[in-house]
TrEMBL record, chains A, B:
PROSITE patterns recorded: PROKAR_LIPOPROTEIN (PS51257)
Name of the protein this chain belongs to: HAD family hydrolase
Keywords associated with the record: Hydrolase
One of the record's GO molecular function terms: hydrolase activity
Gene3D superfamilies per UniProt: HAD superfamily/HAD-like
Record carries keyword Hydrolase: yes
């Protein structure tokens, strides 16, 4: 009797030790009467077609012996970050760039006379409105390069310690979408490996990916600058040239380089047409796949913004991708902590 | 009683389901009398200083509360492939390139008149001896690009199905080093994430990484060609230009891009001085780290070859890296299956 107890405890502690990063299962067994207890894996999603479609897909592809079964090593799920896992009005990347400008100008005041620093210091929005993506990339290059990786990482960590989200005055961590955190956990508890595939720079997202999303650094694919190994410093140096721009058609390229196979589950958002190529690429998988697109139509709880040409929603309709109607499908939007 | 049995079985099956890729532990508990049974995690390593140093390191950094403890997310181990995990006389990559030449010439016979195809068809070794690394890269570029990723993957899989290793006439799988397979398992069972960081092209190694080494595709870092997303084909196309050459100083760069942090455990080999930068980079980790270098000094069971300037062994001596004396430290060299 006592041996059996020890055996159970040994198994249990071994299980807890080996799998402490695993999430809860949807069906758990009550040890008292061996009955199955079903737990809603997506409590912040309203019941409806979309929620049932997600669950039906996961159940179908994890059912051994089913023709739709996908072996675990091919259960790859990719999520965009800005506008998909957290809010993007404004981009956190932009907040970080402004923070870097502040720090760089404090250290070297003459920078305040030089673009793009000048525009930030003088709060000249028109510089970035006129300049578009190009001006933003210029700002990011000026503030994100010229250091070693170690120095850059320290600077990103310092930023996230106190960063507040404009307009909402809450810590950046609280602009994560609660329903998406549940979806990530649900997928992982069903053997999926979850990746972030972001247009943002890879190190900025890596600094918070484990803490914010339970996603390890090496499962983040993003925009990167050129690196060079400096033998004397024994460090990787960031150079002021773009290596890979991981948006739009860049996403399948980043996925191939970092992951080496097409995702079976891909999730992006409308707003900047950044995820169409990734969702389409995922649909080319030889296994049954699932595409999901966040529609930002909730001006009260989040933001409401649409692409002028509706490219993402049109692609979704044409290719039968699933669309998250934020207003209707999400019981709550942001995470509490 | 019966409930307790069901409970045990439920826990056990849940554990097996959740952790089926985990390796055996070094200390297991005998359920009959709760005694600890110690199993040698490295049976193909001869007892001696090196084996005890490896085990002492792993025990020290996994001991909670110890000043040397490393959190799991930072237990990153990187292994070179050619000459470190399997034999490199010749490179498997070269065999694959020859196989591709054969297939390409079969499809288009006029290629046999063109270099580097001509040299392969005519078995003109001097072309590659004279041309060195440059000629090899030229051959690899000519045989590894111009297809989609999907087509290339099929071709790699076809090659590995029947590939035999020259001189030994055994399947390529059997040129893996048995002691290293045990080391990979041992590290993983202690919470390490294991990566391959190879000078070889990333997709060739990814084709066998899971089956040969238990390492998933996304944990392979290697040399890559430029990719382009082809919207019409909905596929990633390989272009005839190098994207990243993952050898020597390229290794820390590849590690930063794919993994995002310095390894704490790094293993390479002498022979081409390809791993010095990776081992040095790993030693710059803020956590206690371990560097390991295979010395190919076993002309009877494997091959014996040394660098002319002894650069790798000199670096090992200078930086106190651990050297595997193949003749002395390995009880057996190759895997049986």
């Amino acid at each position: 009797m006592i041996y059996r107890k020890i055996y159970v405890l040994t198994l249990l502690s071994f299980f807890l030790f080996s799998c402490k990063n695993k999430s809860e299962e949807t069906t758990i067994v009550n040890p008292k009467d061996n009955s199955a207890v079903t737990v809603d894996p997506l409590p912040s999603w309203n019941d409806g077609t979309l929620k049932s479609d997600i669950i039906a897909y996961v159940e179908k592809i994890t059912k051994k012996g089913s023709p739709d079964f996908i072996p675990e090593e091919h259960r790859i799920a990719t999520f965009d970050n800005d506008g998909t896992l957290w809010a993007e009005k404004p981009y956190v990347q932009e907040l970080f760039a402004f923070y870097r400008v502040k720090k760089m100008v404090e250290a070297k005041p003459e920078l305040a006379q030089k673009q793009p620093f000048k525009a930030v210091v003088e709060k000249d929005k028109s510089f970035f409105e006129k300049g578009g993506d190009k001006a933003l990339i210029e700002l990011v290059a000026a503030t994100h390069t010229g250091t070693t990786e170690d120095e850059f990482e320290t600077s990103v960590n310092d930023f996230f310690k106190d960063a507040k989200y404009p307009g909402k005055n809450i810590p950046v961590k609280q602009i994560r979408y609660q329903p998406q955190l549940e979806l990530l956990n649900y997928l992982r508890s069903n053997g999926f490996k979850t990746f972030i595939v972001t247009g943002g720079t890879i190190e900025v997202v890596r600094a918070i990916s484990e803490d914010f999303y339970g996603i390890p650094k090496e499962q983040v694919v993003g925009t990167s600058f050129k690196y060079k190994y400096d033998d004397e410093k024994n460090a990787v140096q960031r150079e002021a040239a773009l290596n890979h721009y991981n948006d739009k058609e860049g996403k399948p390229v980043g996925i191939q380089l970092h992951i080496g196979q097409r995702p079976v589950f891909a999730c992006g958002n409308e707003g900047g047409a950044g995820d169409i190529a990734m969702l389409k690429y995922s649909q080319g998988n030889k296994y049954p796949s699932f595409q999901l697109l966040v529609n930002h139509n909730d001006s009260i709880r989040e933001y409401s913004y649409q692409e002028k040409d509706n490219a993402s929603l049109n692609a979704a309709a044409k290719n039968k991708w699933h669309v998250i109607d934020m207003k209707k499908d999400w019981k709550k939007v942001f995470s509490d902590n």
